Amino acid sequence: MEQDQILKDIKNFSKDVRKIILRMSFKAGSASAHVGGALSMTDIISVLFKYKMKNLNKDKERDRFILSKGHACLAYYSALHLIGKISNNELDTFEKDNSNLAGHPVKNTKLGIDFSNGSLGMGLSLGIGLSISSKKKKENFNVYVVLGDGECNEGSVWEAAMSAPKFKLNNLNVIVDKNNFQQTGKNFDIMNLDNLSNKWKSFGWDVEEIDGHDIVKLKNYFDKKKDSEKPKLLVANTIKGKGFSFTENNNDWHHAIVTEKLYNEAMKEIK
Amino acid sequence: MEVNSRNIKLWSSIGPRAAFGLSALELVKKYSDLMVLTCDVSTSAGLDRFRKQYPDNYVDLGIAEQNMIGVAAGLASEKFKVITTTFAPFQVMRCCEQIKVNLGYMKEKITMVGLASGLVLGNFGYTHCCVEDIGILRSIPNIKIISPSDSLETIKAIEASLNDEESCYIRLTGGTNNPIINKDDYKFEIGKSIVLEKGEDILFISSGAILNECLKASNELRKKNINCSVVNMHTIKPIDENIINKYSTKAKLVVTVEEHNIIGGLGSAVSEVLSKKKNSPPLLVLGIRDEYSKSGSYKFLKEINRLTSEKIIEDVQKKINEQYTEI
Questions:
Q1: pLDDT tens for each residue of A35-77
Q2: Domains, chain A, ordered by start
Q3: A247 CA to chain B: closest CA distance, Å?
Q4: Radius of gyration over every alpha carbon of chain B, rounded to an integer in angstroms
Q5: Structural domains of chain B in order of their starting residue, each with its CATH number
Q6: Residues on A contacting B at a C-beta cutoff of 8 Å
């Protein structure tokens, strides 16, 4: 396939993810939704689900995805919808009574959700278990874990970070969605994560840092062949709430209600 | 592993931790997909030989229990049989939320072995004793809790847990030269308690190494014409309601004995069963009385926590005197 077409497809996927995030948030009404952190990782999950991850609808050698920053589930549910795992009707149940789609992912293999997440700092350890399994069974699949930057406050993230290089898990790919905010403010003010790349490097990871909204750079990053035995970590510099003028870099949208007026405005912006 | 009197004596002499290590050596021959995960405790868990002989089945996560449970859950999701182990306080409490989310909520299935629970590490102080694990884990759905009475039962419980559908916590108590409760081979089934002695006056329900003190107390009380049933409630969750109901019907007093806080443990579990029963006999819950005592030897701690057979008898007689003119 032509490179241009691939990039165009990823961009369209990403646009659709953003639209669905907003629609689900709007339909959730007063239950409100984690909008900002879902929008910041939209381009990352789009490159993964539309392009990079293999055999998503197969049992064998299926690449695995873990959303460690579980509150960003809107992006996850949207991507799963776009690859045919979650129906439109199911999407509309988001945060409703008795729904399969809670405000944080709940394991549901039929819907393509391999793990429950929401309590921060747990996803990477699960990913290490999967990566060890892939090596032991000599099954050729890769593992992708998305962490939040705020999530990196959790000590358990660093327990996991310390252990992955020991097992030479070069099939493990971690992306930190570095949008520079967490629930109640800037990372810098709440708990300074300065030199995040250096921290991971010092733990023995193969680290790169790029613009997490640049589809071309993201694609090139995931295309690179690496001989290293090290697990891979990408610091993806992102904008919280990316995609809509009223949400970008506005931490009020960490968790908020999308009104009908705002929803309509947003849909005009994304056309 | 061949169960014969020689081996039963050997396993008792080395204690439940080393017996667990020996059983892992056998189990890996039977289950090639067995993975044993530890937090730098291979020696304490009797796993040094396992570590050397089966490096592909052994994963040391370093002193990092939260990560251990996550990695275990990841492996379990890929259908490995997984055992995690470290000292009981760290196996249960340091990674409690990982246990809740990964094993309880998500139902990934592993076996956790809590080493040296109860009071056996009393010299180290209460950082290393564990009198809270049952209470904490009992409140998390989808996890079974097993407290083996001796080394043989430890070996049986480990294999049974690997073949159970749910995650299991196996709570090892007592040290080396642990008393033998089960003298011959027997059928062990998770959730099915074992009636060790039958008598109609008092029903003792206990589990773990402290069960031996109940048996001694029962023998002494028999000399005073007080006949006791003694139940080995090796599975604390799900608790064997049938046996409690059956044997408490005629009993004039039910006594639970545990190396655990009296809040949340075996006594609480038994009280939850008895409270549903019409005309339930009174219940005496013996254990750690919701406090952290001074540290000291296992013997000393059993003494001051009134968990020796002599103290159990004193407390039982006091209760009888409060309740009845004669038994």
A1: 999 999 999 999 999 999 999 999 889 999 999 999 999 999 9
A2: 3-270 (3.40.50.970)
A3: 31
A4: 19
A5: 5-171 (3.40.50.970), 194-323 (3.40.50.920)
A6: 106-107, 114-119, 121-133, 136-137, 155-156, 159-160, 162-163, 167
